[in-house]
Write a structure and sequence with these properties.
The chain is mostly helical. It has two domains: 2-69; 73-117. Helices cover 88% and strands 0% of the residues. It has helices at residues 2-23, 29-48, 51-69, 75-116. α1 (2-23) runs antiparallel to α2. 5% of the residues are buried. The mean pLDDT is 94.
Amino acid sequence: MLDKIKILAAVLLVIAGIAAFYFFGQQSILLRAVVVIVSVIAALGVVLTSQPGQAAWEFAKGSRMEVRKVIWPTRRETAQGTLVVIVMVVIVGLYLWLVDVALFWAIYDLILKARQV
């Protein structure tokens, strides 16, 4: 129950920050943005004290470790893969254009023959 109250408090903090942003519309945009950022940081602090917040933090840390294990492609591999995609898009585009033209002329011929009858 306490975790739900903490999450509700965090949501209310964010809502209060957004409301303050619009309520103080005559103030500097920088000051209003700082108020929203501070409210979001405070809300994150409150959420991280809850069990779901701690679980989400642990998940994020584990995800970061997994991203470090990924073997990223080299610049050359990325360029080659991009080139293959571009070539395939052109080939499929030409194929679809040819099919479209053929169907257009077939339907056009059918319409002309139907008018002659």
